[in-house]
Amino acid sequence: MEIDALKGLINTRKGFARSNRFEILVVPPAEAFEDTQEIRDLNILCDTTSLPGRQMQTFETNYTRQQVKVAQSFINEDVSFTFNLTNDMFIKRVFDKWTNMIIDRNTFKKNYDSAYKRDVGIFQNDINNKRIYGVKLINAFPISVQGVELNSSDGEIQKLTVEFTYEDFEELIIRPPED
After folding, report:
1. β-sheet bridge partners, residue 24
2. Alpha-carbon separation of residue 70 from 73, 106, 163, 168 (angstroms)
3. Is the pLDDT of residue 13 over 80?
């Protein structure tokens, strides 16, 4: 009977979510890209990412006979994006320009937040590629552009991992797809 209950639950909930059904919307500052086609290409070439997590910060306080953890604040996890690189390395160039906008490499001056912070969207899609869940990373910016591995042995597709931080995230209201 438990198998039937599980099957019924999965059918009622429209199946299991699939990790390969996602899309992102990253729009770098205008100075970081050459044409709007690059924005579309950047989002298409994203190989992996994750929905953000949140960790509750607590402190311990003494009640009558025991210590109890009490919520104090929260920490949002940084989010990594891994991109497949093309031979023109445009994604690497976009993120090099973007990070150079944050702190100028020649003068070491920090730019205004409004110059480099951008909202970023991450969406979970169903098997028909309809959005079923989404989050917006508020005032996000890249804090780490990882090195690109080069080697003489495998000939695999090169990848670039970029880690973003952000002020907060909010869940986006997405209507469930109609049957």
Report:
1. 122
2. 10, 46, 30, 21
3. no
